[in-house]
Amino acid sequence: MYRLIASDMDDTFLGTGGVLPQANIDALRALREMGILFVPSSGRPYPSLVSSLSKIADLLEGSYVISYNGGCINRFGDATPLVSTTMDFQRVSDLFCWAKERGIGTHVYQLDGRVWVSDMDDDDRAYVGGRMDVTEFDDPDIDFLADAPMAKILFVNSDFARLHALAREVPAELTDGLAVTFSSGRYLEFNPAGVNKGAGLTRLCEYLGIPLADTIACGDAANDREMLAAAGVGVTVANATSEVADVADYRASATCDDGVLAEVLENLVRAQP
After folding, report:
1. Of 177, 186, 180, nearest in space to 220 by CA
2. pLDDT given at position 273
3. Among 1, 56, 96, 212, which is 20 to 30 Å from 272 by CA?
4. Rounded to the nearest 5 degrees, what angle is found at the Cα of 149, between the Cα atoms of 146 and 150?
5. CB of 92 within 8 A of CB of 192?
6. Average pLDDT estimate for 180-201
7. Are 257 and 20 in contact (CB under 8 A)?
8. Residue 18 pLDDT greater than 80, yes or no
9. CA distance 105 to 59
């Protein structure tokens, strides 16, 4: 009996431009009536996710949110996390300076949800718009954030092949011990050691007393891999990248624009014996 469905947000539960398909809203309402928890899971900060989901806040009462790729877990509606993980400031600073010297765009995330962006181009500005509030800055370093708890840092390049090459160019001493992944076809993410969505889902299920076998997880990109592998059933949307093909138990025919939750409801939840 499935008791919890966790889903990535951008390009999975949310469609192009961050639009929420009506089919997902209808499916979420049905799942709620069945007593099945729906848990948003994203690399974004909690405040950004709550803003994106404001239209369906009533359908998420009593549920939870996994943010920062598993680094934080919140009760929906409560900005104080049940679980939070920080990243060493010096490591964030060193990665930022390495990227800055090479003109690579970066997003620096404070634990409280504030996001600082350097060398942002129009393409990324358009992608982020409507999803997340950010502050652009042009300082040569991030020393002004030295006293702020850090959540993560990411590099930006919409050429995904170049992004993968970039991951190989970062000196090992800067990435040693970190959890490194990719997301949204444009981001190279550096997270604290041990942080991933699979670990976040596992921790939440332990807290709730729900076996992982009773969960479904939906995703589209590399930062969803561990979550798809941890869940009882891992689902990929039709627009998923090849990086998650090998961990999918069920490959949906629905894209993020169609409403994958509706397909999960009909073909997995209601199809249970």
Report:
1. 186
2. 76
3. 56
4. 90
5. no
6. 96
7. no
8. yes
9. 36
